[in-house]
Design brief:
Strand order of the largest sheet: 5-6-7
Helix content: 25-40%
């Protein structure tokens, strides 16, 4: 039986996307001072050095060993860097820096794997596993950026960056989203997707109001000043347990300073930028919404706000019907990741776009309900922080 390989145009497109994604993660690792590579910025997570080897180990195990049956000369690395950790018991990892291989050995492993993956692409008949590898790497680019934000400044290579002039106070404004159907998930066989994205189903969403702009630091500061972290009725039981137990009374990257506030960016502490989107946990976002006598959007509402047309129908994408990155090697997501550690845009940065389009940028959403797997699959629920994006609903 003759094996049909991918056509040349698709192979070059995959190779271009793959190399671009590698550049993104390589640049992130270059930010880390050599002596900090074995640090653990977040107590519940692996040391940084794990992720240096994990991206290539994932590619090897998925593509070279899994799809092409290739024999490995470094099986120990294939296993060591295979899986991350999602602690649910409260126990913290206790490995030591000396438990991990030297950086030079990991980098050589990475070079060998990349060469092997590129060779596999020349003989591939299925493009999906390569898209999986690309998206997996870009997802780690996002989480690595978040992890490196926790590193002390002296543990990172100094970067020079400029700050946009502070925008004025964002005027609160809501827009009405017409009732209609939200398409959640995707049909099997239609395109690449992760296990939790199947199958497609539809939900009817009544009309609702939603904030046009992201909640800003300035708006959230009002919540802090009003004693929002001292009022149990605003918090879920789990959220209040966290607030009371940790003594938290302001967002993670805010710093009280002489009656005012500083903002801890990736490379410097700066005066709190009041027009930037606030960077908080789901528990904090939920408490703020209750204080405003509103609520976080459900997943179905967020889909309606992002994809709805004025007549109640759905767009294929928030910006229209065409793939925005067609014909380019750098997607809008990748370009955003490449600049994310440099600066954040004001909440009104996308104000020139149609309301629902603005929800596609500047940070992940924070839907009000818990993540739900559409088909049975093993996942654990994380506690990652992120931008309170797209406002809150009435």
């Amino acid at each position: 039986m003759t094996r049909t390989v991918l056509d040349e145009h698709l192979r070059w497109s995959l190779l271009s996307h793959l190399r671009n994604a590698r550049t993104v993660t390589d640049d992130l690792f270059q930010l880390v001072q050599p002596e900090a590579l074995y640090d653990r910025p977040i107590p519940e997570r692996h040391r940084i050095v794990f992720y240096l080897g994990h991206l290539e180990a994932f590619d090897w195990n998925l593509i070279c060993a899994g799809a092409f049956g290739m024999d490995s000369s470094q099986k120990e690395f294939d296993r060591l860097f295979a899986f991350g950790i999602d602690p649910t018991s409260g126990d913290l990892p206790d490995d030591k820096p000396s438990d991990w291989p030297p950086e030079r050995e990991i980098l050589q492993y990475n070079r060998n794997v990349r060469e092997a993956v590129d060779r596999c692409l020349n003989y591939a008949s299925n493009d999906q596993i390569f898209w999986v590898a690309i998206e997996h790497r870009l997802r780690h680019a996002e989480t690595l950026t978040y992890m490196l934000h926790w590193l002390p400044f002296e543990a990172k290579q100094t970067q020079i960056f400029s700050l946009e002039p502070q925008a004025g106070r964002v005027a609160s404004r809501q827009v009405e989203i017409p009732s209609g159907v939200a398409t959640l998930g995707m049909p099997r066989g239609a395109a690449f997707g992760w296990d939790n994205e199947f199958d497609a189903h539809h939900a009817h969403v009544p009309a609702f109001l939603i904030d046009m702009y992201k909640v800003t630091n300035g708006e959230y500061l009002e919540f802090v000043r009003a004693g929002g972290y001292e009022e149990p009725s605003l918090w879920s039981s789990e959220g209040w347990e966290w607030v009371a137990g940790s003594g938290t009374w302001y967002p993670k990257f805010w710093l009280p300073q002489g009656g005012g506030w500083l903002y801890h960016t990736m490379f410097a502490d700066i005066p709190l930028p009041l027009s930037w989107p606030v960077y908080v946990s789901h528990a904090e976002a939920q408490a703020y919404a209750r204080w405003k006598k509103k609520s976080l959007p459900t997943e179905a509402q967020f889909h309606r706000a992002a994809f709805a047309t004025p007549d109640g129908a759905e767009r294929l994408y928030p910006w229209g019907t065409c793939v925005q990155s067609a014909g380019t090697e750098t997607s809008p997501f990748t370009a955003g990741i490449q600049q994310l550690w440099m600066r954040t845009l004001p909440a009104t940065a996308h104000s020139e776009l149609v309301d629902s389009q603005a929800m596609a940028g500047n940070g992940p959403p924070r839907p009000s309900h818990h993540f739900r797997v559409l088909r049975p699959y093993l996942f654990t629920q994380g506690t990652r922080r992120g931008f309170l994006t797209g406002g809150i609903t009435s």
